[in-house]
Amino acid sequence: MGTKDSHTEIKNIIQRHQSDRTELLAILQEVQEKWRRVSPEAVTWIADELDLPRVQVEGTATFYHFLSRTPRGDYTVYVNTSATAEIAGLEAVLQAFEKETGVHFGSNTPDNRIGLRVTSCIGMCDQEPAALINGHVFTFLTPERVKELVDQMKSGVSVTQMLKPSLDGKNALLSVPSEVKNHIRRKGPVFFSDYVPGAALSKAMEYGSLEVIEMIKASGLRGRGGAGFPTGQKWGFCRAAEADTRYVFCNVDEGEPGTFKDRVLMTELPELIFEGMTIAGYAIEAKEGILYLRGEYAYLREYLEKILANLRERNLLGRKILGTRFSFDIRIKQGAGAYICGEESALIESAEGKRGQPRNRPPFPVTSGYLHKPTIVNNPETFGCALKIILNGPEWFKKMGTVASPGVKLLSISGDCKKPGVYEVEWGKSVHEILELCGAENTLAVQVGGPSGNCVSEKQFDRKICYSDLSTGGAITIFNKSRDLFSIVHNHMEFFKEESCGFCVPCRAGNQLLVKALEKIQMGDGTVKDVEDIQNLGKLVKATSRCGLGQSSPNPLMTSIENFNEYYLSKVRHDVDYMSQFNLNYAVEDARIAAHRRKED
């Protein structure tokens, strides 16, 4: 880089984004895509052109997983390392990539043709092992398929030609091909029933905006992202905030390992979700909506932009919708690989072009959100439910589910079962019923709500999936009795350790200590006291962390200790109170990995 031509090209990129500072992340993504890195010179030029402090541009450029200061390969491979990938044969796939390229993960081939990296969940847990190659999704990888892909990369074959496109549902219609399957296993009365674009919006505009909010309140709808905050109440707070501008955000940054139902919604039912956002815009008197699309779903963007354009042509978006005085439009902003951006205030920071770090609260986004204006943030499932409530009425919705948890829930089910995929079920199903639905047998543990949720044992399979018992954003991951529980928990804890934004000490340091404590038990050097110390440290991290990531990150350890206590106690020493955590063989192994040496070297 460093040439006058490169500087000019970066100026052109910035001008295409109208020199808008909130587009900093998008600008950095374009630079990364073109030059396979964000160089120090690029950071300086971008800072100068946008009149931003260089440290702010550098801070954003170094925060996201898919942005890099060092060159990535012409073909950049990101292999998913989630727990579901591990049980589906991840290790053989990793070894195959290293064998066929001749380099280790974390490095490029000498000619920079191929770069190997690992990443956390990419939303493909029902079709593992999976990887991204230059943003395109490859699924059901095997060592044989890896060899074929590497040979094609060495020969210069384009990534789109390397794909074996899916013919599953609307994946076959995508502008950019992918190997993704939707695996819709169970359809229900809300999302997969009849839908006529514009009908719900037309009906909503027969009411006043406050009446729409009251209908949502009356339905008992709660946010489907995991926290379960009452949707109508959130919309009401935002509508009541004094402001000349308000925003509607759709959070499609489902980074929780095991979750992928939002990907399916945005593929199969994008019009439904966009119309739900528009109804929300009408309710809170907003004129603009923003769909925040996780970086791992970049392959969907061109397809979604075409859907938006079609809605504008049909007067379902844009100025004076359906001939009324109501105007509302939607645009897409894209993440760049950061789990923390699933937290609503971190998502807003990212959408403003900054590091995706959570804000201190209060103020809450409903009073001071995007650009410090009142903002609602809901996920696609919530907007879809709201649309059907307007269409069919609150009482229709309340007849489903339970009294405290009305309606339905979309579940992303993966792991050790015959039929992984997306299931629409009423709230109140037991874990046992869920296992029967997906064909799971000989089950050891079920991770409800992803790693941040609960790891439940066979004794608890009568518990219900609902807000008053086992609440979940949608992830159900199943592990049978052939699996090593410690390996699963370690994978989940490594995820949180890596995804911590690093802002606060309890999360940044606490998760590191928790991982080390688990590894001590795994090595056979743990004691009963170590198990007790893990629980005490976990409570401290949960109580003192700044945001929801740290407040839930100890859950894989704490819930598995609680529900599999006998398993932990069977693996630790009972004859001594203390064992040194230092292990020479383990330390040498750490050094080997750091030096990129093979065991046989």
In the predicted model, the low-confidence regions spanning at least 5 consecutive residues are: none
Shape estimate: globular
Can you list the strand order of the major beta sheet?
A: 5-11-10-14-12-13
Broad structural category: alpha/beta
Kindly, what is the distance between the CA atoms of the first and last residues, rounded to a whole number of angstroms? Answer: 37 Å
CA radius of gyration: 24 Å
Task: Record the SSE blueprint.
Blueprint: H1 4-16, H2 24-35, H3 40-50, H4 54-61, E1 75-80, H5 83-87, H6 90-101, E2 114-119, E3 131-133, E4 136-138, H7 143-154, H8 159-162, E5 184-186, H9 199-204, H10 209-219, H11 231-240, E6 247-252, H12 261-268, H13 270-284, E7 288-293, H14 301-313, E8 329-334, H15 344-351, E9 375-378, H16 380-392, H17 394-398, E10 408-415, E11 421-426, H18 431-438, E12 443-448, E13 454-457, E14 475-480, H19 485-499, H20 505-522, H21 528-544, H22 548-552, H23 555-563, H24 565-570, H25 584-594
Parallel strand pairs: 1-2, 5-11, 6-7, 6-9, 7-8, 10-14
Antiparallel strand pairs: 1-3, 3-4, 10-11, 12-13, 12-14
Notes on the protein architecture:
- The chain has a six-stranded mixed β-sheet.
- It is of the alpha/beta class.
- The protein is built from 25 helices and 14 strands.
- Strand 7 (288-293), helix 14 and strand 8 form a beta-alpha-beta unit.
